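To fix ideas at the outset, we first show an illustrative case, written as a sequence plus integers encoding its fold:
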Amino acid sequence: MATHADPLSALTKPNVGVFTDPAHKLWVSESGPSLEEVKKGDSLKHGEVTVGIKSTGICGSDIHFWHAGRIGPMVVENDHILGHESAGVVLATHPSVNHLKVGDRVAIEPDLICYNCEPCLTGRYNGCLNMRFLSTPPVDGLLRRYVNHPAVWCHKIGNMSFENGALLEPLSVALGGMARAQIALGDPILICGAGPIGLITLICAAAAGAEPIVITDIEQSRLDFAKQLCPRVRGYKVERGVGVEDAAKHIVEAAGGVQPKVALECTGVESSINSAIYSVKFGGKVFVIGVGKPEMSVPFMRLSTQEIDLQFQYRYANTWPRAIRLIESGVVDLEKLVTHRFDLEDAVKAFETAADVSSGAIKVQIQSEVEGAAW
């Protein structure tokens, strides 16, 4: 049950969520837990807290589930709530929770793991054999006004803005890639894709001292945005119809003739992955962060004869405390990434904006009002 009555008694707005379905519809409608359940606190399970969601970013995977209805084996089969990049305020706590209190500002790590399988027990819980990841079908996501979530996955963010708190999730994706790709001071690197993940990876790579850094995209406007974030980055616009080997040559030229040691591939597009493979040096690495189609063709003999490592990433593990420190200290600054903001009730417009390249959107966030003087 709730541990503090005043904030809950002030709540008047019903819980709503942002839904999609197998017919690719998108709408805002009532969702659980209901306002009555939130006020009573009787929907909380052991170890859970109720969070009033304040800011949620729209991820490319949200767009993909809406438009395509699936990502690989993860298929939208029923009405499904989207969203997994969220921050908010604790409204109620189960009596079993003692490290969070009402009014705490938190960012939500959207994992529900089993704690029993080998990946969980060895600290690589992103590979949990029984993972239930919020917003990945059939598990509903965080694009709601109120959510019940395990307290262990609600990270305190202090006075950090809710916008930055919501950006901790994509920052965690970039940090996971940076750590496993082993980017070091002075490494020449390539970043494929100047979308939100590519841009956050750029910010992290610059902070880590990589040089030179080349970033690619098919949209000049995004390369221009990357230059604003990191003036020393070198952009290469990928022209349609250019072969992957020719694109690789242009990438190396953009780097001043230096072949990248590591390519951080943030698009998941086959041609982009293959261009990265042709661009990196002997003994280099292509580290794929982006998600793509179920099967692809790669230049096997290029990988073989050049001893190029091809690695992949699936989400993240143990990154959130590090991400919080980086934002709090100012080592990384992500505030410019949020280009568009919408109210929860205008979520359909928010998704349309995020999906429209011509809108100039980088990161679109959906924001919700939660009553209460404590926040």
